[in-house]
Amino acid sequence: MTVETRLPYDQAYINQFSQERNEPEWMREIRLHALEQADVLEMPKPDKTKIGKWNFSQFKHTAQGERISSLGELPAEIQEFLDRENKPENLIIQRNHTIAYASLTDELKEKGVIFTDIFTALTEHEDLVKRYYMKDAVSIDEHRLTALHAALMNGGVFVYVPKNVQLDTPLQSIFWQEDPEAAIFNHVLVVADENSSLTYVENYISSNHEEQTVANIVTEVIAQNNAKIAFGAVDNFAEGTTTYSNRRGVTYRDATIDWALGQMNDGNTVAENITHLVGDNSNSNAKMVSVGRGKQTQNFQSQIVHFGKNTEGYILQHGVMKDKSTAIFNGIGKIEHGASKSNAEQESRVLMLSERARGDANPILLIDEDDVMAGHAASVGRVDPVQMYYLMSRGITKTEAERLIIHGFLEPVVGQLPIESVKKQLSEVIERKVY
What residues make up the domain containing 144? Predict the structure, then answer.
């Protein structure tokens, strides 16, 4: 194993960690197996991005956080992520690795909805978690970072909506990295059973600008037959956090997963968003925006793989690069043999605001079936000097002109986000990053 990923954790540590959380035996065995795999598996190889020297080992694995009795106790930067128009009744706040606040209405409990932290789920809903945990979506042995995640998972949530239950109000999780050295190895598992629907929103936030730590996030979203899931996220890790994010979805017959992702980290980031359209007539819309600044390096892969017939997948990515930041945007539409009548569409556009900023948009179509439709669009460019001249000739400062251009460039994505609360949060984060 390279120095960059050598961990000060062994089998004895994993055994003790699992025992202290009263995990079932099968989970402890997964952890130990994953730890062994992490010694032999290679690191992922994101396209055109060298991550061999990135920090994946300097972190504190456990850190407690105090509980709060009311949302008014939260600092202002956390309260900004709350739904201000609607009282957040279905909410989990994870402070470092401790659940600081959790609420779920009696109405949803009576309907059989489960919304709890991952460790409580392992105790109270073991069979459900065991059925889905790192099976249908993400595998332990994909590469070293998925294995490390499975071995060191230290937080996250479990969501389950039973058959024929439709949720009108969103479920929200806020993951607050308060300790500047606390690593986040979060596992989020969202399952919508047949004919059900839900909206889930999550937010990540930290403030470690100098201290070095890691976020290794795996999210599995499962939509059973005719289920609909709207998944929204705003990631806002500070400069000191190196982030690996793997959000994976699986749709079965007539199911839908729509993604609305705001990648607003300030540190180096590798992010995957992959959806497998397994069932016939299933579909997915994946929308993502990012603003890069400083010297950060980012690599984004959005991919939709068509297995079922008559499936539809749409990818829309817009990124803005400032200062000396660099980013790769890969959009991949893959139609497997047998997925006839399917449609794969994608658009990736990157705007660079500095001569030293770098952006790369790569549209990729992998088609192994004849009777299909597919299309793509991509562009990389700098701010149009005519636009800048026009705005500044009207008395607008250069900074304000850039701000208007950025918002206009990102609006085609932000404006299409199906979740109002995510749209609002994302606009506010973009505003802060622009200045």
Answer: 3-383
The beta-strand segments (E) located in 118-266 are 155-161, 171-177, 186-192, 197-206, 213-223, 228-236, 241-251, 256-263
In a domain, 420, yes or no: no
**22 assigned to some structural domain:** yes
* pLDDT (tens digit per residue) in 198-233: 999 999 999 888 889 999 999 999 999 999 999 999
DSSP 8-state class, residue 165: -
By CB atoms closer than 10 A (0-12, 13-18, 19+), residue 23 is: buried
pLDDT in tens, 123-165: 999 999 999 999 999 999 999 999 999 999 999 999 999 999 9
Q: How many domains does the chain have?
A: 1
Tell me if 265 sits within 8 A of 239, measured CB to CB: no
Q: Give the helix ranges, DSSP H, for 126-195.
A: 126-132, 144-152
Residue 390 confidence (pLDDT): 84
Establish if 396 belongs to a structural domain: no
Q: Do 174 and 206 touch, CB atoms closer than 8 A?
A: no
How many Cβ atoms are within 10 Å of 66's Cβ, its own excluded? 10
Q: How far apart are CA 180 and CA 238, in angstroms?
A: 9
Model confidence, pTM: 0.94
Does the pLDDT value for residue 5 go beyond 60? no
> Residue 104 gets which letter from DSSP?
-
Mind listing the pLDDT tens digit for each residue in 273-302? 999 999 999 999 999 999 999 999 999 999
CA-closest candidate to residue 193, choices 255, 248, 136: 255
pLDDT at res. 44: 95
Q: Which of 112, 88, 113, 85 is nearest to 102 (CA)?
A: 88
- 166 contact partners, CB below 8 Å, separation of at least 6: 196, 197, 198
In three-state secondary structure terms, 53 is coil
